[in-house]
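Protocol step 4 of 6: record predicted structures for both targets in the notebook before any analysis. Target 1:
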Amino acid sequence: MATMTTQHAERPIVGRYWPLLTLMALVGIPAAGSVALVFSLQILRLVDGAYQLLPLAAEVGSLLTVAILFFALRACLALPSAPRGVYRAVLDFLAMARWHPAVKVAFAALVVAPGAWYLHGSHWLVITFRMLGWRALRSGDVRDGLDGLTAIYQLSLTGGVPLLFGVHMMTRWKPKNPFLPWLLMPVVFVGTAVGVVLLVFLAHH
């Protein structure tokens, strides 16, 4: 009974402030997610004390912000008064709601493929962690290897997520064409690879 009472007390608050919450999510999720990417690895470095306090606070704070806004947004989108049209489609992408199966597959590839490719050429990292566990983080070589892995994800997500968003919006624009999103998958993967190369080139010039 206490749980039901709490839920009923919270729903009017979400319903009343959903325009503000959705706007905060629209701006805050991409911004906080970018900060979390930039300051990645600080949490892992807590193991050996090699972290930096301010970047660690930024990483933890940004991850918490993303989580809070994500669940708040999903609660807002479940309301009968939730927005419609293009704005709803954009918010659905941020909330990972009502994604087309092709978008889900492409997102899974963005999460798995960069790490698999990097670790295939740096399999010693996997072997080291198997042998030493979390103690491996005390090695400077391991930390450098993880920095490289993080950089790969920073680049691939920076280049791939906007393309994924484009495919998501295409599924809302052409909902009666179930094959179009699957036909666009090569564009996402090739575009991500090209984006990574361009970002690396710009970073070194």
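Target 2:
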Amino acid sequence: MRSVQSYHREFESSQTIIVNGVEMTMKEYCKLHPRKRKTTKVANIRTIKMLPMHIKDMMKQVKVLKSLVAYHEHGYRQWGRIATEILNMRDIKTPFAQVVIKTKQAERLVKKIDTIAKSNDYDVFQYVNQLQMRLEELTTQLTWLVNGITSSHITKYYKDHECINGEGKRLGLRILCIRSQKAIGELEVICQKLWDMQENGVDALEYDVNGKRR
């Protein structure tokens, strides 16, 4: 004896509908428009907790960003009007200011990720995405800044001044420019790794501190 459920399934599949002027059964319609199975990206608790440490380790590869912020904010106090003159140059002013802004935004996002990850909250990946976008913007601005410093020839014009050739705790623009060129490549690697974390669900433990796959 047929079950009631079997009867209903056969009845429903034999019902006809009109789609774009064509009559077809529900069974035929379902074959043409199969339901897509909803996939859910799963990240284990350990991965979420490890995200902040891993991201901080990657950001250590671009420590020059903090040095650039310090140069921009304390240049006048250290070297006076000459620093102001350099920072206000046409090819340097806007990208330098943007590098400072994007760096501070990225630092705030890293702190936010640290806070959310402690609660094992999957929303942390939304902030990882925001961090990736800020770092991509930062990479663009840093490239413009390096190009601006190079095209202005300012490092040659003031080559004997500490604001250009300073070392140690008072880094000059020449060294900052060299390190920024390297940081551009590092930032591109970091952005790719952040994208992998979001899109492919790659466990953070699969990377070393330099952002390279183990």
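Step 5 preliminary note on target 2. Residues 1-38 form one domain. The first strand starts at residue 16 and ends at 19.
Proceed to step 6 after PI sign-off.
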